[in-house]
DNA sequence: CTTTTCACAGTCGCGCGGATGGGA
DNA sequence: TCCCATCCGCGCGACTGTGAAAAG
């Protein structure tokens, strides 16, 4: 894969780091050889990370808690014994509504938790994540709480190049943002859901020679808020499970005084403050974690009782905080996928001037037209360049065809894809060994099943473009970040699986196609369909990304240009997003 | 030299107000 | 004629990455 090659240097570095820092999968659950195994991205990635069933009663929570520093970094010690813990199932969070100690920062926060895998080496920290299948009793026997990272494929795209997140004084939103689906909660029990961002490793990082390298020790004395409470907290389990939970408005800042005013507020009010920002430090690697904390209905009665809490960690959510992007690959990914950066996308319309007739005919789903997008001997004399970049395509496979794009516009395909899902148990390591880096996108490699879900029609208005609709589904999800235009809930009842011609069974599919397919898991079908119908000609057009470079240098590597194939690949994939899929644990 | 800050241009969604059309 | 609902256009604010300047 060109993309893989282009990112190999960085990836290998990242791989090493991740191996050292944030192993995400139990070693005995995945075979060696899988590139991402060391990257902490094993097959468990579609899952909540490691639900342990332990429910330690901890007389001295602090003794369990690996965060001994005031800063509450995730890594715990000199031996690198553990960094992030995949899932920490605890039951010792003081229960009086939302734990007030949270307001005091991570150090105190942590005291309320215990970690199921607090002992052992770093890999054990993630052991629980390996299966991710184990039922977790959150508020009662038999309940299974599971968390799915909705936009995981997009996260993986960034993770491949080492995700960077801009931090600014006024606060910058994350992109991709965190978006989860939760299942297995008690319908009537109230929960607080919040995200905490903790140091992922004890290093200070710098971008040198085109890759991220460690550079001294992290400053773990950083003060500031590390928690973002979901604005809808607290709420019932039914509410949280109704649809995806997005943290699109979560902002990152390097301004330590960003929440100074908030600190004057009562604790609970502070966490409900919708403009809360998380204070991070530039050039440090962080790991977001999702917390689900049960809120007793009767605070007074339960004052002496313990709250139940869970922490979910997805290694692919790791990122390095920066004040300016270092890796141009990351920049390009952000531009490609973040709708707010649309202005930086150079598409066909801006690159070339087409006559109206050229623009309007043939129709967007006409293959002939699509083939005309990049005329031979393209203007700008870019043909050689296009060819070159096609082979170098970092993000997309070059194998996709226009017919796919067209095909998916046809209703029968839509219907078929709407029910994409397979329920294939992992048969053995050999299959995994065959899986390349993203091969585990294939559901056939997952130890759990995929099931379709009823279509959702809540807004994804930021993604009118079908490609974006697919790629970023879940990014600008329905909840939190942008107003929901549909209030009806998402029934989580599983639907019968009817598997059509699905990509998971097509070994010829590129990994990115699979990526998109998986992205589709949380895509809203209706908007995507509409978008396809009203697809602008430009969506089929060449996308050339110029990078700080005079025209005289056209053709150099400084210009990243992706042809219509790639773009339509996205469109095609987006069409696959017409289905609304869910992953669920096989039991 | 590296990192951070800031102004900038571009895109988008939202909200407001005016225009329009239908019904009482 | 009046009232109400809907549609449309415009302005504003939020948000983005860029690139130069400032800071360390």
TrEMBL record:
Residues 557-568 have a biased composition (Basic and acidic residues). Residues 1-28, 486-512, 552-574 are annotated as: Disordered. This is Eomesodermin. Keywords: DNA-binding, Nucleus, Transcription, Transcription regulation. Residues 149-346 form the T-box domain. SMART domains: TBOX. GO terms for biological process: CD8-positive, alpha-beta T cell differentiation involved in immune response; endodermal cell fate specification; epithelium development; mesoderm formation; positive regulation of DNA-templated transcription. Its main location: nucleus. GO terms for cellular component: chromatin; nucleus. InterPro entries: p53-like_TF_DNA-bd_sf, T-box_assoc, T-box_DNA-bd, T-box_sf, TF_T-box, TF_T-box_CS.
